[in-house]
Structures are given as C-alpha cells and as structure tokens.
Amino acid sequence: MPEWMLKPWRTLSRRLVLDGGKYLKVEYHAIELPDGQVIEDWPWAITPDYVNVLAETVDGRYLCFRQTKYAVEGSSLAVVGGYIEAGEAPLTAAQRELREETGYESSAWTSLGTYRVDANRGMGVAHFFLARDAHRVAERSADDLEEQELLLVTRAELAAALARGEFKVLAWAAIVALACAVGE
Amino acid sequence: MPEWMLKPWRTLSRRLVLDGGKYLKVEYHAIELPDGQVIEDWPWAITPDYVNVLAETVDGRYLCFRQTKYAVEGSSLAVVGGYIEAGEAPLTAAQRELREETGYESSAWTSLGTYRVDANRGMGVAHFFLARDAHRVAERSADDLEEQELLLVTRAELAAALARGEFKVLAWAAIVALACAVGE
Question: Model pTM?
C-alpha cells in the first residue's frame, strides 16, 4: 500500500470541555474519516510534553531513582524526567532536569526519539535522551513532591531490573529498553 | 533509604468532573502527601487498559503495520494492540487482538511486562506480550477504523526501524525495544 493511501483523519472542529489547569485539559473534536464518516465528540487529552533522561556516569553507572508516584503501586525504579516548560526546547529541559534532580551534567547528549504518548487521545509527547559521560557538578536541588532515592547501577543491573519489571511506568521502561536496544 | 520510607500519597476523596464515555473520564482527587499537606483537585484520567503484542512468525518475521492514527503525524509503524474489554484477562485480549488484526495465532506467549501509562494522571495500564511461533489460521478481520497495512519484517529491519524512530507511539516503541532488550 503506497504511503498516499494512508489517509489521516481530519479535525473539523474542537471545543474545550474541561480545563484542569496546566496539567490536564480535555477537548472534544469532531473528526472526518477518510470515507467521509464524521465522529462527533472524540475525547482529546492535552497534557504537557515531557522529557526523560537516562544518564550514564563517566565510570559506566546509570543514574536511577527509587521513588513513589501517585499512579503507581508501591515504589518503582525511575529515571530523570519532568515536564517541558513553556517555550523551552526539549534538550534544554532534559539538561535542566538532569542537573536539578541529580546534580550531574553531561556534554554527550543523544536523542533516543520522540514519541506520542497516546495514539488516540494525545496526552502530549515524550522526548527521550541518553546523557553519557555524566559527572557531578552540584548538590541535588530536586523540588519534586515525591521522595526520591538516587541510585547508581551497572548496565547489567539496569537490564536485569528492566526484565524484572521494576520500571513500572511506561516511559521509564521505554527509555531504558531503548537505551539497551539501540543506545549503543 | 529503606522501602518503608517511600510513603505513597493517599487519596482522600474523588469526584467525577468529565464523563467522555468509555474512552475517557476525568476525576479530581484530593490527595494527602506524606508530610500532611493536602492537594485539592489533582486531575486523574481514566482510560481503558490496553494490550500490545509483538508477534514473531515461525520463520522469524515480526508482524507490524504501517498505519495512521489520529494523534500521530503522517504514518507510523505499529504493532498489534487494542483495548481490553470489560472482564477480559490481558492475555485473552492479546490473543483476540492478534487473531482479529492479523489472522495469526501463537501458542508461545511471554509477558513483556505491565506498565502504568502516566505516573501522575493514570491513563490506564499497558500489558505487553511477545507471541512466538505465530502462524496464520484465518483471514484478517480487523474492524479498526484506521487503514492498516500488514508487514512481515526481519529482526534486523525491526531494530533498524526502531532506531530510526519509525515507531512513533510510546507503547509501540516500548514493546519493540523491550523485545530487543529483554525478549530473547
């Protein structure tokens, strides 16, 4: 099937139906399908785009956290991450979050891709980065509400934790798996 | 930091603020933090849990699609997937989706993990499966609204497409990366 036959859906109109502040807005879209059929009130969720960073130190350790999150049962292994601020470039946000959450910096940044969070509803875009040769330049200044424990793990420990399902959040498992699969 | 120090947040109350049908509901939660602070009106998004399946045929090809989705620019490589129906077990949903979308079946199923889609807002849970020794038993009977082109790709092609960012949706990139990183 040639590319031109894969016709996207067309947005006819959109109306805001819930304003939950900067973290969640919901619109209903009227959408026209390629065959002319129209879907009314397609829910569309607007949340901030975010970054995640997998940082590898100069001596080959990976920076992780053990932390709790509201939507996760128990604690989870996590990676550096956070929302992109208004007008901020994804890489700038990634560098800021790495510095704030760990006190580390890196001058060897690689993109691990940009992904739509939900193929139907939207839910923002995730930007993933690998930060090699990370080195400590400052104390942590995380202002996260959650408690966070910083861990330095080997590559073998990272892969084993991934396989055991210890990264319980989709984006965190995704970036670790991407680094293991294509990051080298 | 011992595990018991990682205290989760506690839900004090919840109220429905948007009922967008079975695909999206939004609640506001009142939440108590470990230090006693209370957050009012924390947005919580309820969407159906879903499955994704990476299927490998008996001759070592992986089943993918090229398709369009409303929230994705252009077309994307995709894997088998869909929402879990009410009362349906994740593995049953995975087997149903594989059969419906491709006409293939497998008797060698492995879990690639279960992941919360959004650590703060909820957005359901993703269940990933690897289906080995997949073989064709029927015609495709996909009722998806989107156009879908079925592709059979080698492992090398799969890994190369992942590295090029051709899986544009977080869950699809995640399951392919997980299969490459831990699936063997």
Answer: 0.94
